[in-house]
Amino acid sequence: MQNSMTIRNLNKFTKSLAKDVCYHLDITIKELNEYISFVQAKNLVKDFCVENEDDKSYSITKENYKRCITDMQSWIIGFEVARMASEGEYECYVHEDGILETESIGEE
């Protein structure tokens, strides 16, 4: 598999990926844990990997690594938008074409 990484320790890899997500979203690991559990993050990573049965390792392409980070970021942002909407800070609705719209309440 070209342009791929071999993952021998999925737990360490997931923690490293989580740190990347935290860096890009400017949040701490503790804050990340409020949005997604380690098990959920690890399962998300597995979704983007190919399991190598021979040596119990995993492989992930660079493109799938980026997609995994993007999915985790989208999960966290969606969670936060839903939380803010439930607290009355935002109104959310989905257009017929599937685009999510948000509007801050009380601000111009």
Mean pLDDT: 87
Largest sheet: 3 strands, antiparallel
What is the helix content? 40-55%
**Please, how many helices?**
4
Beta-strand content: 15-25%
Total number of domains: 1
Task: Show unreliable segments.
Answer: none
Account of the protein in words:
The chain is of the alpha+beta class and 108 residues long. The protein contains four helices and five strands. It has helices spanning 10-25, 29-35, 38-47, 62-86, and strands at residues 4-7, 50-52, 57-61, 90-94, 100-104. It has a three-stranded antiparallel β-sheet with strand order 1-3-2. Strands 4-5 form a two-stranded antiparallel sheet. A hairpin with a 5-residue loop joins strand 4 and strand 5. Helix 1 (10-25) crosses helix 4 (62-86) and helix 3 (38-47) packs across helix 4. The longest helix is centred in the last third of the chain and has 25 residues, at 62-86. The mean pLDDT is 87.
Topology record:
Blueprint: E1 4-7, H1 10-25, H2 29-35, H3 38-47, E2 50-52, E3 57-61, H4 62-86, E4 90-94, E5 100-104
Antiparallel strand pairs: 1-3, 2-3, 4-5
